[in-house]
TrEMBL record:
<protein>
    <submittedName>
        <fullName>Uncharacterized protein</fullName>
    </submittedName>
</protein>
Length: 95
């Protein structure tokens, strides 16, 4: 065995373990989201776990949808479209 093969075997094992654990956490997060009964809350949870802004468009309440999009995209422009004043101020303060 060469040094590169030894190094690869010692690095590949822990790297695979980290990948498996990370995927397990992601799957546990989505399964918890699917257990939520409220469709808007479930969509918000899935969007957060998967970091997918497309899921935010499933949310029927406009303010919550815009809050979700602002959280996922990390941009302030969606905060300005929130109609409820307190929620808009909170969204802008977090960005």
């Amino acid at each position: 065995m060469t040094i590169s093969n030894i190094a690869r075997s010692y690095l590949l094992g822990p790297l695979c373990m980290i990948a498996v654990v990370w995927m397990g956490e992601a799957m546990a997060g989505t399964s918890e989201c699917y257990a939520i009964k409220d469709a808007d809350k479930r969509a918000y949870c899935l969007a957060q776990v998967k970091r997918d802004a497309g899921i935010c468009y499933r949310i029927k309440d406009g303010d919550k949808r815009n809050q979700c999009l602002a959280d996922i995209k990390g941009s302030r422009d969606r905060c300005y479209t929130i109609k409820e004043h307190d929620a808009r101020k909170t969204c802008l303060a977090l960005k």
